[in-house]
Amino acid sequence: MRQLIRLSWCGLLLGAACVTAACVTVQPYERETLARADMQFEGAPEIAEGEQHATEVREGSAGGFGGAGGGCGCN
Amino acid sequence: MRLSVWLGLLGVSFVAVVARADEASLGFFVRSDSDKTHVVAPRVAAVKELNDGATRLDVSYSADIWTSASIDMRTAATKRITEQRDQVTAAASHEFRGNSLGASYYYSTENDYDSHGVAAFAIQRIAKGSATLEERVNVGYDIVGRSGDPGFSFPATILGARLVYNQILNPETVLQAAYEVNHKRGYQQSPYRYVGLGGDGLCLGTAVFCVPESHPDARTRHAIVLDSRHSLAEDSALGLGYRFYIDDWGVMSHTGVFQFSALFGQESSLTFRYRFYTQSEASFYKAIYAAPTSPQIGSVTRDRELSPLLSNRLALSYDTVFELGRFGAAMRMAIATGVTVFIYNNFVGLTDVYSGDLTLALTLEL
Known about the structure:
Chain A is mostly helical. Chain A has two helices and no strands. By secondary structure, chain B is mainly β. The model of chain B has no long low-confidence stretch (mean pLDDT 91).
């Protein structure tokens, strides 16, 4: 129960941050920097899959960072 | 490599040629660790764009070929084994007025595990394009078998949803907030693992009883992620990310990611990435279970992923594009290497695992 309350607080904080941030409007001509390769959340899919292979399938947690696949991940 | 891998690689390559794909890629992932596990994972993919790029079709094939004599094998007195998992994925998406709709399907198979998954997603641009909202739902169906036991077959179903919000904060900073929930019901333990009760907790040691691993048949998992990218100068950017994870098996974890990227010219970038992870144990996990005093044993596990652990990962990746002017095409190359250290705080027989991995991906943009 305590953990769920903690999760709810995190959600509320995130929600508040997003609502506050949504007031900001950056014009299209100001977005050149944001289009650069080093500013993207998703890089090459093979590199992201490699990191998932090396970490997430060997940990008890999953999800949040995107990506999904099948299999038991037992190895 | 086995025949099925060659067939998968050739199959997707054939589709790419016949459909005159706009993009075709080939990748290899190799991993080796101190727990005597080695993985080789080839991947081939093709992308076809229609309607002036508004519609996108993706198809890919990947395989995991792994050889292991890990602690799981050693404590079960099983010899080194080699297994293979094959996966095909198909996806389609369509963009209209800045919004997107899409769906994907995957089928994964190995000798003792089949998995099907379907996902649908929508992306909307809001706040005059300064923010995007993505909703995704997924459904999965797994069939768990046991090698050498044709009568052994148990299902598991997965329901999941993911909400992602991207916000441009200023011309140099972008923020991402995501929430993901997944519910899995059905068979979730390993059909091969046994748990020693009493003694030193090892079936091959002095345990009084040795019973099959048994997990609860339902698990609900929540993850909240906050990620960001900030441009430091004209040619470098900083990334900071954090994930909070919790589930109803009692596992709680924190993941922190730091990355620094530098651009070289218009087409090349070098990224350094550090990832820290720590988790608590599942509520029913014990390093050593006491010998039972009644026939009712409850959930017991010998799964190190449910034990308290932490990991540190350092990775370096390089991405570049070569112009193949003569053919009117471009070749993108991504190469990455990483070192990960897992520390097991309370797992009998294993205190740490050191692993190294290498990824090479070549993408031909036609």
